[in-house]
Amino acid sequence: MRNTISDIQNVKLNNMKIVLDAIRKRGTVSRASIARITGLTRATVSSLVDELLEKGLVEEIGEGKSSGGRKPILLKLNANSYLAVGINLSDDKTIRGYLCNLEAEVVAIAEQKYENNFDSILYAILNIVSNLLKAVPEKSKIAGIGIGAAGIVNPSKKEVLFSTNFDILGAGLVKKLIEKYSLPVYIENESNAAAWAEKEYGSGKGFNNILYLSKGKGIGSGIIIDGNIYYGSFYGAGEIGHVMVDPNGMRCRCGAIGCLETFIGQEKILAQIKEKTGEELSINDAIKRYSNGDPDIKEVVSCEASYLGKALAISSSLLNIDQIILGGYIIQYGSNFLAQVEESFREHTMSYYRDRISIKFAKLGRDAVGIGGASLVLKRVWDLEIIR
């Protein structure tokens, strides 16, 4: 009997996900239309919609047009019924937090500088979350907190396994946040979080096999395979910065020779610019000079695009993905840089792939990691894990 009851509950939960997904994807829709779209009976749809209305996830917005008979009542997602907090823990100076609604629209942003020790990081995040919670509308509820962190992360154990930039090893950070706010808290590698956000709400929408690459101080990537984040055996998949692009290159700090990062890591790019111009520039100053047509910097960036295209060709051939998304500061280089990356990519990939893989800049831009943190929570909302 217990198994029978459990099976019935699972079927009901699955059907509720199907109904919620239909409403979410179609904007406004009637109960009758949901029944036609999903193949569920009108009685089942009506019962499930009543529960979703009670939970506040959807709302009735008035009557639609009638093709004969009574006018249908239209439904839509109640985007502000639940909100999620996303934390970007990938910058070496500032932690940035986002309050997002169910459509990943940013409601509020807060940020704080920090020192690289656990107590300072925790204090900054607590301040950010507390400030964001003050911005929650009266009728909205918080579904949870999600963190995109630089490092190798085991998301199922909510544990940071390795991080060269942040003093956050272990599961202590998540535990402290759960203790403070009594909310679900999730943590994910920064590039994986950004890749998921782009898949759900950005340049990767509609694609199930995606390579997301971001350039900051280092080079990271997140991989989506068959609609899910790909982790590999040790949660370390996506180290594209250590793809070998030249067997005659210099030795990388990782121990290998000819890694992509030794050619186009931020330190290397700025060193090449100094060698050509005699000036020590920040990456932001270099981007401005590039945009203004500085020939020396354009030459360095052109070489950067060439190596990047080559690394993307190697990676996409192995993964058989259909969408490449570029994030981080390279977005500011603009369309000419993107065209150079595409040209190099097509030179180094087999002809069969050339017209099947597109390369785009991240739609969410610098906000991808923070919105990605929030999207970790939103995923649980759509799966009805948080709201039962």
Note the main attributes of this structure:
Nucleotidyltransferase, domain 5; globular; 43% helix; alpha/beta; 3 domains; 15 strands; 388 residues
At a glance:
The chain has helices at 2-26, 31-38, 42-55, 118-133, 172-181, 190-201, 260-264, 266-277, 283-291, 295-319, 335-347, 351-354, 368-382, and strands spanning 28-30, 58-63, 73-77, 82-89, 94-100, 106-113, 141-149, 152-154, 159-162, 185-189, 210-215, 219-225, 228-229, 323-328, 358-361. The protein is an alpha/beta fold.
Can you put this structure into words, describing what you see?
- The structure is a single chain.
- 43% of the residues lie in helices and 21% in strands.
- It is an alpha/beta fold and 388 residues long.
- It folds into three domains: 1-77, Winged helix-like DNA-binding domain superfamily/Winged helix DNA-binding domain (Arc Repressor Mutant, subunit A, Orthogonal Bundle); 82-195 and 371-383, Nucleotidyltransferase, domain 5, CATH 3.30.420; 203-362, ATPase, nucleotide binding domain (Nucleotidyltransferase, domain 5, 2-Layer Sandwich), CATH 3.30.420.
- The longest helix has 25 residues, at 2-26.
- The protein is globular, with a radius of gyration of 23 Å.
- It starts with a helix and ends in a 6-residue tail after the last helix.
